[in-house]
Model the fold of this input.
Amino acid sequence: MRSTCAILFAIIGTALATAQGTSSPPVPPVIHWLRANAVPLQTTDPEAPLDDLEPLREIVGNAQLVSLGEPIHGSRDIHLLTRRFVQFLVEHLRFNVVAFEMPYPIGLRFNEYVSSDHGNSEDILVDLLHLDKVHLIRWLRKYNHSVPPKWAVRIYAIDVAQIADPDPPVSFLCRNLPHNAEVILKQIAPLQRRSDSVCMIPTSQKDQTEYQEALETLLTLFDRYRVALVRSSSRDAWQSAREHAVYLQQAYRFLRRSIYAEAEIPPDVLSDMSDEIPGACKTLLELLSRNAPDAASAVRQVLREIGEFASMGRRTSESIGEYDLVRWRETLHPICNRAVKFTMSKPTPRATEARERARDMALRVDRYLELLLTRRRAIGEASSSRDQSMAQNLEWIFFQEGRGARVVVCAHNGHVSRRSRWLGSAVHSFGGELDRWSSVKPLVIGFSFNRGPPASG
Done:
């Protein structure tokens, strides 16, 4: 455990020595621990020797799955570190699969690029959104051309956050089952209609049902005609096309739930309410301070937190944790339920008015928190669906490559984490999913940074 933690904090180890000041305040215990355990890295330059990453050999050991997490997508320095780690795992520990947090079809194009033995296939990289990965992909292609085929690296993509054109798996079926092509096209007609549409996700309940049934039919056809399809193409071609069909189902399930989360509580509603909440919190605190000092002391900090959060607008509404929302609501419940005793000795009209006005303000804030919580949980369900699919896709990779495969995954820290909760909500990360039920347990290495803007490129 000690060596594992040391390498996780390696990059900040180089900064600790320079952070010491002659008149600095007492150093927290965690800093003492880091100074004792951190293994400084010599450089982030991927062209430099990899000797400083040797401690990684003992940490990884015989692990078949290593997950490299990043705190933010597009950070240049984090990308350079990730590239160095991948190069070490591939060159020194013979990892033979690299999986990215990208849609399945993009992974197919990347794999074609690194596996190509002829011509310049740079056009495959054009117009891809994952430009921070391009340099690593180019290095993998160069590596593959320099080693025996048994050591070549293959690329997969495991994410399902983007809908894809259904034409590749449909064309595969029609091409290899020409006598059934007309029937096949009729059975999956809803997919073809949506592929020509600006919005590939159906909006009406009827269209959603038809689309879902067409996706299930598409996958059923791959299984029903498996023998014929493998005979007329190959096992690998059938597996790849079938997985594309699986991806369509996974992406549709995730995006449909994401759209539901947006529709459940429209962002504009929250944005409009956010403008009122800071004032409501201030008014409520003033009423309590004058009429119920004990209650004011109990809720003062929470009301400040809520007011500050609401004043930041929708920009932060996706990142608020479920536990904070529940804690805030529980703190306000006594006011909402008239359980707070006001200090007036007689129930005068003024006292009653103050109590009811305080309750009205508390209910208004509580309604805002309730909407945030509903939205947060809907987003959590969609995110859990996404990560469950990513975990299933990693299992499929091991099925394809065999249990002797060694896989390195590059994804966001929130996905690779083994913790089952993310952003303070009941969101199952794919790292947590694999840790719970997969026979291949991930070794997680997370990256982070202290300060400064992330630089892309």
Q: What stands out?
A: Residues 1-21 have pLDDT under 50 and may be disordered.
